[in-house]
Amino acid sequence: MIEYYFNQYFFRIRLSIYLIYFNCNNVKSIRSRKPTIGDIHTSGHPTNWILVGYDGSPNQIKLIGSGNGGVNELAQHLDDSIMAYGIARVVDKVDGIPTDRYAYITWIGQGVKGMDKARYGTNKAHITKLLGHYNIEIAADQRSDITETEVMNRIQDASGSRDRTGEVKKANTTYGNVSSLKNPTTTTVKVPGANTSSVGLTFSDELASIVQEVKDGKNQTNWMLIGYQGKESLVFVAKGTGGVDELAQHLSDTQAYYGIVKTADQIDQSVTYKYGQINFVGVNVSPLLKGRITSHKGTIDKFFSPVHVVINGEQQSEITDSIFQNKVKALKGN
């Protein structure tokens, strides 16, 4: 046990030194400046991927490669005999607006022995911190899982930018009028936790009542927001009549939130209401929390269901009334 903590202590020292070196913008090679992690997280910078791995010991890491050829180029550096970690920057279009997204890649080659997987894997958290912010994580042992297409599919699923018009229209058949909407009646449900056991993600009766309030066409309340209190409990944050832009004022980039918004949609003389679900995971939310709340997605979706559109974001600028209205208009093919 003493040896374990001793090794962890010196790994952190080496990692800190490596981080200082790797992010030093003044370090230059003979031909060109060495790539830095800051480059990957700089919008528009030519360097859009970086890959690091172990240098013969779980306590030492090295640069395997970097470049401007995207995910497919990164994949060429993956070998069945190594464990490696990488970050790739891609551009996702959300409502026509180019937005940088980051994929964190954990590679465990099929030739890596089980003992080495356990020995080397103990330092993953430190390397994750080194590589910085990401939107999705892909763990793979086959190169076919690390492609530009696969990464973009995962990115667009997470951001909600993939075209889901067909799915929404199908769901639309259940929307006769507000009174026909089905609202959740269960306030405690079981979802998978970080381990193999199940834990309860709890919703108070108050939350279910406020969701009904927003979905009531006669009620002026047109948004509500909930957030985490502890690991598995969701509590009321705020509600109001000022729409998405007012909701966004309550978002913090270190927290995760879910919400529902309402807008009136008039066609000829008929007025119906369209509902949007807000999923917000702040850009500075810890990787540990991100991993935990991923398992809650299905339960959250059920709680707010049915809705017409979904808005995903990690910054306030991605949660706006303009984005919501554009998504609603897209339902009609405008």
UniProtKB/TrEMBL annotation:
Alphabetical keyword list: Actin-binding, Cytoplasm, Cytoskeleton
Keyword Cell cycle: no
Pfam families: Cofilin_ADF
Gene Ontology BP annotations: regulation of actin filament polymerization
Gene3D superfamilies, per the entry: Severin
Subcellular location: Cytoplasm, Cytoskeleton
SUPFAM superfamilies per the UniProt record, alphabetical: Actin depolymerizing proteins
ADF-H domain location: 25-156, 198-329
Main location per the UniProt record: cytoplasm
GO MF annotation terms: actin filament binding
GO cellular component, one term: cortical actin cytoskeleton
SMART domains with a match to the protein in the record: ADF
Listed InterPro entries: ADF-H (IPR002108), ADF-H/Gelsolin-like_dom_sf (IPR029006)
Keyword Heme recorded: no
Record-stated family: Belongs to the actin-binding proteins ADF family. Coactosin subfamily.
Protein name: Coactosin
